[in-house]
């Protein structure tokens, strides 16, 4: 066993020399060949060690394409070896993920394959939360948000850990800051709705609180009223009725009150209608938390085909940066 480990270390060391000399292509190809031999012999641990060491060396040298290719090969080997999604495996994958150069295209492929593997090899069918959290946090950094395209960050943080809500609220607020002031609720909803739809009320509340707290602290002229009762406290934004709707929605979910939800839906219907893209999410929330059945209508054959082909009902994908919304009235407690 010791001799095999020594042999692997020598192989990696030789390729690291080539990488330091700038012979990236040669090192990449030789590492692939050696790893493939171990895979053919079903020596999974040796293949994993070779691919991990080689991928990390190439990524650190700024060779995102080659390093990413070996990283994806590593994920494939993890799947073939039928290893579980344990701390050691996750540690290797996260180390590689953090080593990717900024804006490296292969990174998205690596993340997609890593998450898919963890969904099969772990206890979370949608992917391991820790992997989602780190991936989402990394996608949120740098120019991704500046370019107004934080979709990858959103998707992963919504399925992350208890720490992800803070990061997602930060992503949404920074994206909102590039848009018109009256669109705040549309960005807050992009954190609140995904958490509610994945039965994560705690993170939904946390994301809403962080977003609104930052909104208040960054906009001193924004009118805010504190409303307290024996059971709860909340902030009311007279000029942002849809933001109030989200806060009251969270309160209704917490209380499990279908009557309160129906009152909210009726009172805020004109504002929600103007948004146009909240209907499906709210219908799902109504069914999940309040037992309000979603009407099943339409052509059964079309619905079946839509399910098979990936189209059908669902809110449209929002456009980067600008999110259309009605300009709410400047007064009143709506």
Could you walk me through the main structural features you see in this protein, from its secondary elements to its overall organization?
With 334 residues, this protein is mainly alpha-helical. Helices cover 66% and strands 2% of the residues. It is built from 17 helices and two strands. It has helices at residues 2-20, 24-40, 44-60, 64-81, 87-99, 106-121, 129-140, 143-146, 151-157, 164-176, 184-197, 201-218, 241-255, 258-267, 269-275, 279-290, 300-309; strands at 225-228, 233-236. It has a two-stranded antiparallel ribbon. Helix 2 runs parallel beside helix 4 (64-81), helix 10 (164-176) packs antiparallel against helix 11 (184-197) and helix 11 (184-197) packs antiparallel against helix 12 (201-218). The longest helix has 19 residues, at 2-20. The chain is elongated and about 70 Å long. Mean pLDDT is 87; it is low at 308-334.
Note the main attributes of this structure.
334 residues, mainly alpha, two-stranded antiparallel ribbon, disordered C terminus
Topology readout:
Elements: H1 2-20, H2 24-40, H3 44-60, H4 64-81, H5 87-99, H6 106-121, H7 129-140, H8 143-146, H9 151-157, H10 164-176, H11 184-197, H12 201-218, E1 225-228, E2 233-236, H13 241-255, H14 258-267, H15 269-275, H16 279-290, H17 300-309
Antiparallel strand pairs: 1-2
Helix pairs in contact: 1-2, 1-3, 2-3, 2-4, 3-4, 3-5, 4-6, 5-7, 7-9, 7-10, 10-11, 10-12, 11-12, 11-13, 12-13, 13-14
Range of helix content: 55-70%
Main beta-sheet strand count, sense and barrel state: 2 strands, antiparallel
Order of helices and strands: HHHHHHHHHHHHEEHHHHH
Structural class: mainly alpha
Tell me the distance between the termini: 71 Å
Number of helices: 17
Q: Assess the beta-strand content as a share of residues.
A: under 5%
Model regions low in confidence, pLDDT < 50 over at least 5 residues: 308-334
Spatial sequence of strands, sheet with the most strands: 1-2
- Could you say which overall geometry the principal axes of the C-alpha atoms support? elongated
Q: What is the rounded Rg?
A: 24 Å
- How many beta-strand segments? 2
Query: Averaging pLDDT over every residue, what do you get?
Result: 87
């Amino acid at each position: 066993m010791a001799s095999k480990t020594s042999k692997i270390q020598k192989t990696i060391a030789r390729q690291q020399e080539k990488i330091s000399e700038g012979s990236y292509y040669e090192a990449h190809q030789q590492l692939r060949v050696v790893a493939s031999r171990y895979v053919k012999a079903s020596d999974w641990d040796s293949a994993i060690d070779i691919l991990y060491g080689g991928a990390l060396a190439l990524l650190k040298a700024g060779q995102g394409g080659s390093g990413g290719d070996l990283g994806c090969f590593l994920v494939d080997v993890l799947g073939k070896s039928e290893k579980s999604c344990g701390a050691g495996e996750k540690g290797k994958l996260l180390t590689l993920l953090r080593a990717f150069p900024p804006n490296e295209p292969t990174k998205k492929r690596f993340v997609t394959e890593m998450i898919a593997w963890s969904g099969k090899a772990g206890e979370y069918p949608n992917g391991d939360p820790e992997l989602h959290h780190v991936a989402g946090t990394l996608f949120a950094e740098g120019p991704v948000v500046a370019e107004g395209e934080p979709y990858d960050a959103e998707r992963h943080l919504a399925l992350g850990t208890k720490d992800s809500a803070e990061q997602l609220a930060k992503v949404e607020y920074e994206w909102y800051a590039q848009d018109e002031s009256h669109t705040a609720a549309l960005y807050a909803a992009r954190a609140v709705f995904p958490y509610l739809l994945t039965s994560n009320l705690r993170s939904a509340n946390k994301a809403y609180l962080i977003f609104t707290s930052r909104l208040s602290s960054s906009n001193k002229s924004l009118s805010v009223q504190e409303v307290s009762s024996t059971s709860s406290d909340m902030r009311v934004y007279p000029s942002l009725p849809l933001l109030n709707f989200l806060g009251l929605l969270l309160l209704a979910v917490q209380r499990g009150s279908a009557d309160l939800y129906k009152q909210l839906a009726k009172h805020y219907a004109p504002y929600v209608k103007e948004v146009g893209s909240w209907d499906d999410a709210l219908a799902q929330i109504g069914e999940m938390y309040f037992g309000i059945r979603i009407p099943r209508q339409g052509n059964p054959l079309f619905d079946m085909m839509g399910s098979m082909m990936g189209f059908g009902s669902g809110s449209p994908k929002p456009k980067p940066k600008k999110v259309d919304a009605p300009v709410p009235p400047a007064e009143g407690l709506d």
